[in-house]
Amino acid sequence: MTVWHSPxxxxxxxxxxxxxxxxxxxxARLVAAAGIRPGSRVLDLGCGTGVTTxxxxxxxxxxxxxxxxxxxxxxxxxxxxxVRADNVSWYQGDARDVDRLVGGxxxxxxxxxxxxxxxxxxxxxxVAKVLTDEGSLTFSIGYRVRPDAAAIAxxxxxxxxxxxxxxxxxxxxxxxxSALSLREWSRLALVAQAxxxxxxxxxxLHTLYFRCRPQG
Length: 216
Ligand SMILES: C[S@@+](CC[C@H](N)C(=O)[O-])C[C@H]1O[C@@H](n2cnc3c(N)ncnc32)[C@H](O)[C@@H]1O
Hints:
- By secondary structure, the chain is α/β, with parallel strands linked by helices.
- The chain has one domain: Vaccinia Virus protein VP39 (Rossmann fold), CATH 3.40.50.
- The chain is 40% helix and 28% strand.
- α1 runs antiparallel to α8 and α2 packs parallel to α3.
- The protein binds S-adenosylmethionine (SAM).
- S-adenosylmethionine is lined by residues 4, 17, 23, 27, 46-48, 51-52, 69-72, 75, 94-95, 112-114, 117-118.
- It holds the Pfam family Methyltransf_25.
- It comes from Kutzneria kofuensis.
């Protein structure tokens, strides 16, 4: 059980994402970085309340399919209420069990603002089992302080290689948010850095998007 399992967290997160663009913007950029095509079958790992799922549905279109996975029943209940589409399926379970949760292969897997919370080694192994031969995994990571993108990319290149993946592309981007957004983010009590926020200045979320592929 994590903080994500609380209905109160799901409710606060949902209200936050409706008021501030942080998660919608990073989801849209993630979906673009993943190079997803209309008609694709795509896995959304750590789908939360459905913000990323919605961006994926817009990209895959009516001929595509989104398989959305989250370990928190409360987050999933909110996602189901938020996103009504015939071509989305919801799965409650841990990302590391995704090969047992969903049936068949997917053209791509994405994960927005969640990947570092996963049990990395088994999750990468499970995702490799469900990707088609051409399939890729794309995930995002956010920082309050401008990261050393080259050093972080090199760390991920090594970590991914050690787990049977090649890093295909690393993209960096910035997203400006209001001071109010950071204060409300801190009330989510999910981010220690945000909880320490005291000033009234707009702030920047630095994001890295990593696209990788299981080695052939
Ligand atoms: C910051 S939210 C991101 C939600 C969504 N992708 C978005 O951008 O709005 C992180 C989500 O990851 C989920 N999560 C954390 N650990 C997980 C795990 N091991 N397996 C599946 N989901 C997990 C949480 O329940 C939460 O819904």
